[in-house]
Amino acid sequence: CHLNGNKDPRANGFEVLYNEGSEDGQRLALIMFDELRRQIPLRPRGLVPRMDIAFLKHIKCPSVIIEPAFLTNKEDFKFMQRVDAKDIISTCLFITILKYDKEYLS
């Protein structure tokens, strides 16, 4: 999980990054994105394929980076300050792992 930031304070929402060359990573990203969209009251920015991030590029298993909010945006920041924000995000992670396991590994 990585919190986003931008020089433009209007930039907002959440996105899920994955290794552009990994079909399994893209599947995991889609499940995660759908779960975040159900749980987080912020703008869904979409899936972002990336090849330039070492963590995504060199790891052998399906992997994603979630960016649940822009700390430089007032509304996103307000969400992240909520007492339940971490619980919501961690629940999304947990549900995503269960769904991925059920759909692709079992």
Short synopsis of the structure:
It contains 4 helices and 3 strands; from the N terminus they run βαβαβαα. By secondary structure, it is of the alpha+beta class.
List the helices and strands and how they pair.
Blueprint: E1 14-19, H1 23-39, E2 44-50, H2 54-58, E3 64-67, H3 74-81, H4 85-105
Parallel strand pairs: 1-2
Antiparallel strand pairs: 1-3
Helix pairs in contact: 1-4
Fill in the keyword field for this structure.
106 residues; alpha+beta; three-stranded mixed sheet; 4 helices; 48% helix; globular
How would you describe this structure to a colleague?
This protein has helices at residues 23-39, 54-58, 74-81, 85-105; strands spanning 14-19, 44-50, 64-67. A 3-stranded mixed sheet has the order 2-1-3, with helices on one face. It is of the alpha+beta class and 106 residues long. The protein is built from 4 helices and 3 strands. The two termini are 26 Å apart. Helix 1 (23-39) packs across helix 4.
